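[agent] plan:
  1. take the single chain provided in the ticket
  2. run structure prediction with default settings
  3. attach structure tokens to the ticket
  4. add a short note for the reviewer (M.T.)
[agent] executing step 1
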Amino acid sequence: MGHLGAGWLERPEREAEENPTALIRLLEVKPTDVVADIGAGTGYFSFRIAPLVPRGKVLAVDIQPEMLAAIRDKRKRVGAANVEAVQGRVDDPALAAASVDLALMVDVYHEFSQPCEMLRAIAKALKPGGRLALVEYRAEDSKVPIKPLHKMSQAQAVREVEAAGLRWQRTLDDLPWQHLMFFVKPASQ
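[agent] step 2 finished; step 3 output follows
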């Protein structure tokens, strides 16, 4: 989504459509975690996660300078000192190796122009035992009112993410329209 659609990311209906409160609870973040919100956009999830990691931080990664400017402005406005805007690239989130406890991607993976390269870079950024939480609209459910182009099946996601070296742990379908799929970086990587 381009920066001109930023208002859509902050729409009031999003709570009912996606239940971000439940999603964040299901992530089970710890107070010291470093969370990378990849494809952060306006920081919708970044700023909701920040209070849960008071001794950690949220790395709000996006490729659009306009979105990062919005994140920096909001950071100042709300005083979220533990939210850091990070300029990523289409093939790399620009995160240090083994620096992230949890990478979160909400409805962004299917938009990547270079998904293989991005997944490998995310895997590299995760600490051993670190997790990727991939949230995508359920392709298996014809009642989800989203264009097929913006949906993913669990089978497709597992196949692609495991090819990058992460191991599928579980999928939760507790959200209204989306899969919440957890992957882990093996301790031996």
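[agent] step 4 note for reviewer: The mean pLDDT is 91.
[agent] ticket updated
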